[in-house]
Amino acid sequence: MLVQAQGSGSRADVPAREPTVVTAAPVLHVSYVKSGSYFLWKLLDSLFRAHGTKQSFVQQHPIQQLREQWPEFSIEQFDIDQMLIQDDGVHWQVEVQHIEAIRDLSAYLRQCSHVWSHSFLCERSWEVYPRFGRRGYIVRDPRDALVSMAHFVQTPFMRRYHPHPATSSEEYVAMELCAFLEDWCRHAGDHLRASRALEIEILQYESMVADLDGAVRHLANWLALDLDDAAIAQVCDTVSLGKMKRNNPQHVRRGGSGGFREVLSRAQRERALAIVGPTMAAAGYEPEV
Fold first, then answer.
1. Among candidates 257, 214, 252, which has minimal Cα distance to 236?
2. Does pLDDT of 102 surpass 50?
3. Is residue 66 part of a domain?
4. Domain residues for 257?
5. Cα–Cα dist 104/115, whole Å
6. Domain presence at residue 6
7. In terms of CB atoms within 10 Å, which end of the chain has fewer, N or C?
8. Which tens digit of pLDDT belongs to each residue from 36-80?
9. Distance (Å) of CA 118 to CA 30, 174, 261
10. CB within 8 Å of 24: residues ≥ 6 apart
11. In CATH, what number is assigned to the domain containing residue 247?
């Protein structure tokens, strides 16, 4: 499940303990798009709720009054504390429909138990990442991430807010294969290379899904959250792929691994492996065509 660097239900899925005062710095979890980021967010969210230490800036923000005005948004997009980290500043966001500068980072972090980011590593990251108590990066086979995105762009949400000219998953792959995978190499590669210096926990999506109980227990221990077996079992149920697919089908389609072989041609698979092979190996994979 853990590699040393070398998608939902309602918010009531996990019964929450009585809220307690949080003194620890929040957790930052980072990923490239469609790489298990929603799965990891839901897992962390469920762990903090079970422990009674869930906190959220965005869930307490007046922007909640607007959540019904954005059709096709899943309800949880308004529940995610998402951060955009760039050299010109740090922002909180709800997708790209609302992006707002964080003027007081300390005050913002005090209101969060965990924060999600898709941002590429940049100079400012080296200032922001150490402000978090824990930092995790979830990595997924980028060829499966590509296929996941190819299907995602056809959903009502993406067609409304992020329209793409591709009319099928196959067409998206043909148009975006190189750009998507090259960006993955930069995103994942930079985080892997910085993982020791920035103390980033590297998590392999496929291993976590294969041993969900072990993944949940590992993260609970990593976060120093004292949870009994019943709480662990409830978290596992909440983040099971079957339940997440039923509750949020736009964001969780299959959630498995190796599906790229059903969409990519042999030539595309060979081209993809030539691009991502070295970075995948650095992330602990043994990639094959």
1. 214
2. yes
3. yes
4. 27-282
5. 15
6. no
7. C
8. 999 999 999 999 999 999 999 999 999 999 888 887 776 688 999
9. 6, 24, 26
10. 133, 224
11. 3.40.50.300
Residue 32 structure tokens: 């490239």
Q: Both tokens of residue 224? A: 């120093």
Q: Count of residues for the chain? A: 289
**Selection from 143, 135, 137, 155 nearest residue 74 by Cα:** 155
Q: Give φ, ψ of 30 to 5 degrees.
A: -120, 150
Give the count of domains, the chain: 1
Please say if the pLDDT value at position 5 is more than 50.
no
Nearest-angstrom CA–CA distance, 114 and 131: 12
For residue 279 the two structure tokens come to 């970075």
Domain presence at residue 1? no
Rounded Cα distance, 152 and 144, in Å: 12
Continuous segment of H or E residues that includes residue 278: helix 266-282
Nearest one of 282, 236, 262, 259 to 39, comparing CA atoms:
236
Q: Is residue 17 domain-resident?
A: no
Instruction: Give the tens place of pLDDT for each residue, 191-202.
Output: 999 999 999 999
**Considering just the CA atoms, what is the radius of gyration of the chain in Å?**
18
